[in-house]
Amino acid sequence: MGVYALTGGATGIGAELKRQLVDQGHRVITVDIKEGDIVADLSTADGRQLAVKGIRERAADGLDGFIPCAGLPPVARPLSLIASVNFFAVVETIEGIKDLVAKKRGTVLIVASNSAPMVPTDDRFVQLCLGGDEAAALAEIEQRDGHTAYAGSKRAVSNWMRRNVVDYAQAGVRLNAVAPGITRTPLSEQVMADEELGPAMQQFGEMVPWGGTAQPEQIANVMRFMLSREADFICGSVVFVDGGSDAMLRPDDF
Ligand code: NAD
Q1: Which position among 87, 88, 150, 240 bears the catalytic label?
Q2: Which of 178, 187, 215 to mutate to test the pocket of ligand 1 (most atoms within 8 A of CB)?
Q3: How many C-alpha atoms does 250 have within 13 Å on its Cβ side?
Q4: pLDDT at residue 24 in the model
Q5: What is the architecture, at CATH level 2, of domain 3-239?
Q6: Rounded-to-integer distance, Cα 212 and Cα 203, Å
Q7: Boundaries of every domain in the chain
Q8: pLDDT of residue 162
Q9: pLDDT value at position 6?
Q10: Low-confidence ranges of the chain (pLDDT < 50)
């Protein structure tokens, strides 16, 4: 059976994915700010180092997969925290354990969002993220809004994945992303409770072609398959698990 490492394993999609992988007999190493094998705040440089070190100690023989799932909603404040956790921590942890995943010819599955295409790649914040300048990206996002911080960081992480597919494949790592639609977790509950973004999210949920919102297992089921050896020719894909909402908004793009 395999060995996986997962950030954001305390609640929501990450907790459900962990449950499913463990049920299948895999070992799962979790990192989270709340609870887990490694308790670390991924918004900080120290926390990221602690996470990478902790995973390396526990999986010295290599990883079958890594899932940087920890994320903050568009209502989190300060806005710079969203960029730190949703983009910079994802990239830094992946880079920190790339060789461990390569050892087993394993896979990294990023958690993007169906909101990622809502902010263009040429947006200044997205460009600063992709340029790797954390201080400049954090300063920029403080002047913007929660939607741009969230969707922009998910756009950037999707772009980062696509841009690194060739290098990582050559190193023996299969990179992909899953792009969930609205999923019933503590994160979406926080957005639903927000005076401004709550009604917009509610309205969006009502427009989803296949109906409503997802439960965490509907996202984790697909993630578990993408991580499996059965899916080992899926490489460089952003898989939308969103009830058709991205196709509704961008029918000619894929
Ligand atoms: P969640 O809030 O249940 O889970 C997020 C996890 O990340 C929590 O366990 C939390 O403690 C952890 N976390 C937050 N900040 C952290 C930090 N600084 N350091 C370490 N851990 C931290 O939410 P979820 O909905 O399960 O989110 C999982 C992923 O799915 C996120 O990346 C989110 O952006 C993405 N996503 C969620 C939805 C949705 O509607 N729920 C839609 C699209 C994408």
Answers
A1: 150
A2: 187
A3: 12
A4: 97
A5: 3-Layer(aba) Sandwich (3.40)
A6: 10
A7: 3-239
A8: 98
A9: 98
A10: none
